[in-house]
Amino acid sequence: MSQAVFVTVSALDGGHLTLPERLFVTDADPEKRATVPSLSFLVQHPSPQTSTDSGRKSTNLLFDLGVKRDIESYTGAQQAHIAQRQPVTTDPDCAASLRRGVASNRIEEHDRGPLLDPAKEIDIVILSHVHWDHIGTPSDFPNATFAVGSGTLDLLKNGAGPLYPAELFNDDELPRSCTVEFPPVPRNNYGAALHVPKHTATPLSTQTKLPPLAQEWAWRPLAGFPAVLDFFGDESLFVIDSPGHLYGHVNLLARVGERRYVYLGGDCCHDPRILRGEKDIALYDNGRGGVRSVHVDTGTAKRTLDRIRSFVHGESMGEGTEVEVVMAHDGVWREQNRHRFWPGGI
């Protein structure tokens, strides 16, 4: 039996935004607004297999990029939406968090140099989805390959129906020659729903740099999840198809110890009380005579949350397995776990 491979995971600040509680959870205070983080994560795999730097002993991967450093670079429609999420903060953003680390007050950056250079030392960026508060500033990572859920590139170009028009996205957001979509999920999560974006195949001229076993990527069931992809091919990092919030939404499951996993849940929910079952997903007027939630498909989003709960409370990965779930906008988790931000680890 081959030796188990583990990754390290560190949280990163990627800016903050403010959410009105009534749009996200049931039985909410209609006046309450909470300023929450948009977390990014650094995942380090113990091999230089996708890096051109032979002196480096890890593949450095980012999950989500948070909020753009320059708010003015969002489209007009995006800025109109962002105006409803104020206050928004962008310092530190993901790139600054990589350079400074959480303990930047101990020594000035120019005295010790950056902890990680985002322009040179990030190999791969996986985006949970392409909403404005997760897409960050991709140009900060010119050496990276970008990996996104199936349908994402079509979504960026054409939108997905009246609730997700093209003007809410930037068509040129991701470098096309360095971006790859994960394979289409065999079972369409959205049934016969209209406006589901189409898969974009990787062009022959691609400049993407992926793990050697990427050509064998395939969705398989694992631990109650219908579609899971073994990213490095060694069971250290799994991409989990996590439908419901936005087309192409994915999560990561990182193996950080013999019986320890970290589940990075993106926007499966926006409040930890929903995951704990204390609250439910809020519904509100969609402006067209019906109701909607912050998810493209509320029922599908609830099924994804049910699978996460079952996974966390079960022993599908072996007896005694511990799973820690971290959602992108969990402000309580951020405040209680500052020591686990880069250069610390989860």
TrEMBL record:
One of its GO terms (molecular function) is metal ion binding. Keywords: Hydrolase, Metal-binding, Zinc. The keyword Zinc applies. SUPFAM superfamilies: Metallo-hydrolase/oxidoreductase. Its cofactor is Zn(2+). Coiled coil: none annotated. It comes from the Eukaryota. Belongs to the metallo-beta-lactamase superfamily. This is Metallo-beta-lactamase domain-containing protein. It comes from Lasiosphaeria hispida.
